[in-house]
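Readers outside the structure-tokenisation community will struggle with the description of the input data as it stands. I therefore recommend that a typical entry be quoted early in the introduction. An entry of this sort, consisting of the sequence and the corresponding backbone structure tokens, reads as follows:
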Amino acid sequence: MSPLVEEALISLTNRVNLSTGLLHYSDESAAKELFKLLHKEGEILNEDEIASWAAKNGWKDKHAKDLGELAGRMGGGGRVVVRNKGMWRDDIIDQLRQRANSNGA
């Protein structure tokens, strides 16, 4: 998993209600929108890596699996509908990249 994807997962984890995972439409939209941006950047969204990371970072096992499946589907070019767009700042990828670079230095 790239540092950029990991920073994105940290931000998503801080935003989502971990007790319900992606069941709320705004949490689901935030995940979809973020994965879409990462895919557009050419990042690899590996289902197993993301599910494993989520399970180790506070997500319930079922919700971690759901997150991984969503990421894998989107990383494979699968189309999804984002109900609530604009969940992230326009420069979120730049912000995440800066955090990834500063954490890796």
Summary: The two ends are 17 Å apart (CA to CA). The first helix runs from residue 3 to 15. Residues 3-100 form a domain with the AhpD-like fold (CATH 1.20.1290.30). Helices lie at 3-15, 25-40, 47-56, 61-75, 92-104.
